Predict the structure.
Amino acid sequence: MTVTRFIERHPAWALIILIAAGVLLWLVLAVWPPGLEEAIGRKRVFLNAVLNGITLGGLYFLVASGFTLIFGLMRNVNLAHGSLYLFGGYVGYAISAVTGSWLLSFIVAFLAVALVGVLLQLLVFRRMEGEELRQTMVTIGLSIVFADLMLWAFGGDFYQIATPSWLIGPVQLPFVTALKSSGEAVYLQYPLVRLVIFAGAVVIGVLMWLALNRTRVGLMVRAGVDDRDILAATGVRIQLVFVGVFALGAGLAGIAGVVGGTFQSLSPGEDTRFLLASLVVVIVGGMGSIPGAALGALIIGLAEQLGSVYIPTYAIVVTFLIMVLVLALRPQGLLARR
Amino acid sequence: MSLAERAPLHARPPATAALPQAVASPWSISEHPLPWLVAVVLLIMPLLANGFFLIEIFGTTLILGTIALSLMFLAGYGGMVSLMQLTIAGFAGYMVGVFGVSGSANISLGWPWWLAVPMALALATAFGTLGGALAVRTEGIYTIMITLAIGAAFYYFTNQNWAIFNGHTGLNTIATPRAFGVDWRADIPFYYVTLGVAAACYFAVLYIARAPFGLALQGLRDNPRRMAALGFHVNAHRIAAYAIASLIAALAGVLQVWNYRQISPGSVAVERCIDILIIAVVGGITRPVGAYVGAFIFVILRTFALDVLVQLGLDGNRFRLLIGAGFLVIVFWSSDGLVGLWERWRRHGAPTQRGAHHG
C-alpha cells in the first residue's frame, strides 16, 4: 500500500529506484561481458564487495536499531551506545574463550549489556527526563569513563571471537562469476559465517518489526513514541516500558558486539567507530524508525564496501556525501514520518 | 525547539544591558579587581614562568581555550552545540601544512606563511560554514550528532587520504614564521602571539554578544519562531554564527600547528573533538571566560595527573577516567560549569554585587 502511494506521489523517484535496482540485479546475475570487466574489474570482486556490504549492513543494523529504538521512545541520544557495543563484544569474547560456546556468548552478552542499559535508565536518565541536552552530555561523559574502564580491563590488544567450527569455511552461492574457457560456470564462494550472521540480523529485524506492530507491548511503545504524556495518563506504567526498551536496545548493541568481534575484531576505538556508524545510519534512515535503520544500514554498508574497493582513498567521503545528500533533500531521514 | 527553551545553556545577557551604566562599569578596577589582575599576570607571564610552563601550560591553554571559545559562542549564544570546532581548527592546521612548508615536499606547496595562513583561514572558515549550513537544517541534539559525524568523517578521511593529508603519518616539520628578524615560534614571542590572538577572539566574542547580531542570535536561541515572525532569517543568522565561530577556531588551529610543528589524524580524532566540549562545559559554557578556565584545568590535569596519580599510588594511565568522571560530576551538579559555581559562591558572599559581575 505504501509502495503504491510512493509511486503515485513520486513517479520520477520510483522510476529511478526501479532502474537502479534493475541494473544492480543484472550486475549480480548476468555473466559480465569482457568490455565491462575491462572497465571496472572482475565480477568476483564486485560481488564480494556487494555481499560484504550487505552483511556489514546487517551488523550496522543491529547496532543502529537499538540506538534508534531508544531515541524514538525516550528522545535520548545515547552517545554511549558505541561503548555498549564494545562492552558486549568483550563480554562475548570472555565467555567464548572460557566456555568455547559461541551461542552462549550471545546470550550472556545480551543479558550483561541489557543490565547495563537498565542501570543507565534507572540511575541516570530517569533523573533528567526531558533535559535532552544534559542527557546527551552525560552519555558523552559515560562513554569516556566506559572507554577508559574497558581499556583498563582489556588493554589495547585486538581480540577476535573464535568462529565455531560448524560455521568455518566458504559456501558456494548460485551467482556465476565467470565462465571457464570450457564454458563451465564458476560460482561464487562466500564465508558461511557472514551469511548466517546476516540471516540472524534479518530475523531479529523482522521479529522487532512484528513485536512493535503486532503485540500489545509494541502498541504501548508506538503510542509512547507518539505522545508519552498521554500514554502515561492512560495508566500505562511508562517507566517500565522505558526500562524495557532501554534494556532491549542496549542488549542489541551487546549482540552486535559479539557479531562484530566475530567477523571483525575488538579494540579500543571500535566504540567510536560504531557510534559514528549508528549516527550516520539513523541520520540517513530517519531517527526513531526501525525500517529506516534497516535501509540506512544497507545503504551505508554497501557504500562503505563498494567505496573501499573502487575508490579506496575516498571511501569515507562517499558515506559522508550520502549523509549530506539526505540532509539536503530530506532532513528528517529517508523513512521518518514527520 | 523545546530544547532551546529548556536547556541549561543560556548565556546570561550581557550585564551592562540590564544595568544602568552609572551603577558599575565592568571596566572599573576597584569593582572588579580579578579580571585586571589576570590580565596583568598574563602580560608579565614570561617573567614568571619558564619555557615549559609558558608554552606547554599557558600557550596550550590559550589555544585550546580559543577553540572552546568558538564552541561557547555557538552553544552559549546560539544554542547550537557543535562538536566539529576542533575539526575546523585541525583543517586550518592541515591547510597551513599543505599550502606552506613542511617535511612532505610532495604535498606542501611551499607558500610563504603570510600567504599560506590567510588561505588556511579562508578555507577553514568556508569548511566550517558549509558544515554549519548542514547542521542548521536540524536542531538541538541532532546538531550534536551531525557535527560529531562531520568530525569523525574528517578524522577517518585524513587517515585514508594520502594525496592531501598524507594518511596516518600526517604532515611533519611544518615551518613556523620568521619576520622582522624574530623567530615567532621562540617561546616568548609565540606566547605573546597566542595571547594576542586569544585576547582578540575573547573581546570580539564579548563585543558580538552585545552587538545587534549577537542579540539577535540569543533571540534565536530562546525562541526561533518568534524571531522568524519578527522578520529575522533564522538559518542565515545561524550560518553566519557558524562562520564567525569557524574563523575563531581556525585561528586557534593555525597556532596549534605552529605550536606542535606537526599535524596528524590523531590531532583531529573524535576524542579530541569531545575534549573541546568537556573544556567548554567544565569551565562554564554560558560565559566566554569559561572556555579558558576549562582549558586551564584540562591542561593542568593532562600534564600533571599522571604524576599526581602515581604519587597517590594509583595507576597514572587513568587520566581520561579522571577527566570523564569530573565532566560527569559537573554535568550532574552544575550546568553552568565552574564559572557558574564561582559566581554562585560570590553571590552568597556578597549579595549586593549580584549581577554586576561580567563574563
Remarks:
- The domain at 46-329 of chain A is CATH 1.10.3470 (ABC transporter involved in vitamin B12 uptake, BtuC).
- The first helix of chain A runs from residue 2 to 9.
- Chain A touches chain B at residues 75, 77, 79, 130-134, 136-138, 140-142, 144-145, 147-149, 152, 272, 276, 279-280, 283, 287, 312-317, 319-320, 323-324, 327-328, 331 (CB under 8 Å).
- Chain A has one domain: 46-329.
